Amino acid sequence: MFGIKRITGAADLAAKGEPGSWVSDAAREKFMAAYEQVFALWPQPCAEFDIETSTATTRVHAYRPHPGGAPVVLLTGAGGNAAAWFPHVAALSEEGPVYGIDMPGDANPSVPRAPLTPPASCAAWLDELLGKLSDRPAHLVGYSYGGWVAMNQAIRAPGRVASITLLDPAGLTRPDARFYRWLTISGLATLTPMPLRRRLARWLDNPVMLEPELMTLMWAAIRGYRMEPKFPAVLTDDELRAIDVPVLLVTGARSALLTPAQARARGSLMPHAEVAVVPGSHGSFNRIGELNDRIAAFIKARAAGEQAAQPAQSPTAKPVGPQPGSMP
User: Which domains does the chain have, with CATH numbers?
Assistant: First the structure.
């Protein structure tokens, strides 16, 4: 592990009980330059703004061609930020606004004032954030650690949650040697020359490695930010049974974190879950268009069910933050 750190120049994790922090001002500036380049890939017009909660200032990115519907809220994996959602944003915006959340404690402009990894603290932060984003329950879409955040919310503070979509989520299994081997090999593979990287990307089933803007951003984060350690405990069977919102659980056929068999077994414990196995690995999914269609159809069906159940209530949500055309 220490040899890998010397090779890659990765920053240390934040001390236990401390929120994340930048290694230096120069590291933050280098990261922000890469960050802005990747966000240029989001569909336009895209707004960004900060939301204040009790424990953090959270950067939010908004794409709102249909601002009146229930929001779709994107929750990123550990160490990441909302930039990587750019292939999904437009496809998920048909029913309502899409908000990408920069998770406090990771490399991004959000500023944590306290650790947010304790389950109760995480749920309190997100509940407060969702309440300020919209007066309607949100469809949470979480990848990896973001999937754990979504499940944790559905367990501890479900009042503002309409549904959860879990993309190869953490919290259903304990990462083993196979996962950490995949993680190490994938990370080192992103540092190889592009001809070799293309071959490794095919072998690892990880096409994200071929996105140069994302790789530049990833390494600026790894080297420049002391992230809050994020190793969530595996959710118990009883906790999964307590998730009473609709669930779409998606795993990659070659995932090193959550095998298809594990996904079906653990998904069967959630009362309203459907499980989908798609091509790809934990690092990325192939056939993004088909995956987007599956998620969008799931959200649309939930939205239609809510309207049928409450025909007399059709509020128009009041959007927060700058609106299209209001920013320079």
Answer: 19-309 (3.40.50.1820)
The alpha carbons of the chain give a radius of gyration, in whole angstroms, of: 19
Given CA atoms 283, 285, 288, 293 in this order, what sign does their dihedral have? negative
The pairing of beta strand 72-75 with beta strand 98-101: parallel
For residue 189, what are its two tokens? 């593979």
10-residue mean pLDDT profile of the chain (328 residues): values are 63 85 94 92 94 97 94 94 93 95 94 93 98 96 97 98 97 90 85 91 83 90 90 96 97 91 97 93 78 95 70 50 46
The reported pTM is 0.88
- CA-CA distances (angstroms) from residue 322 to 40, 61, 62, 131? 17, 10, 9, 17
